[in-house]
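User: Please predict the structure of the protein below. I'd like the answer in structure-token form so I can feed it into my own downstream comparison script.

Assistant: Understood. Taking the following sequence of 132 residues as input:
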Amino acid sequence: MIRFTVAQKAERAALIERLDEALGDADRAVQTYNDALDALPTPTDELEAVNEAIEAWNTWAEAVGDTAADWFDAASEAWQTSPEGEAFQRWVASLEGACLDEIEAVVDSPDHLYAEHCDVDLPELPNPPEAE
């Protein structure tokens, strides 16, 4: 083989065109994916609102529990040891256990895609060297 044949040159040109089209399609698909990913909302404001509501609940439960505990402590010992007093004390304890933990916001978002080597520069292939 001294030179590329006409058929080889045509096949090479068709392969270059196929590669260019495939690379262009891949690049557009990756860009479309990344654009859609950028448009996704993150629920950080909503999660922050949940934690604020939890904090308000905890403040209320602690305040009611403290008030009830003070009221219980001020009651007579006879009432405290009565069935009503014991039931009241269990209720106060349930208020102490009613505090909620804040939600830890762990939002795993997908990563952007990057197509490496999408810019393929095909070398110009010279004709084979002449036989000596």
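That's the full token string. Helices lie at 6-39, 44-74, 77-80, 83-96.
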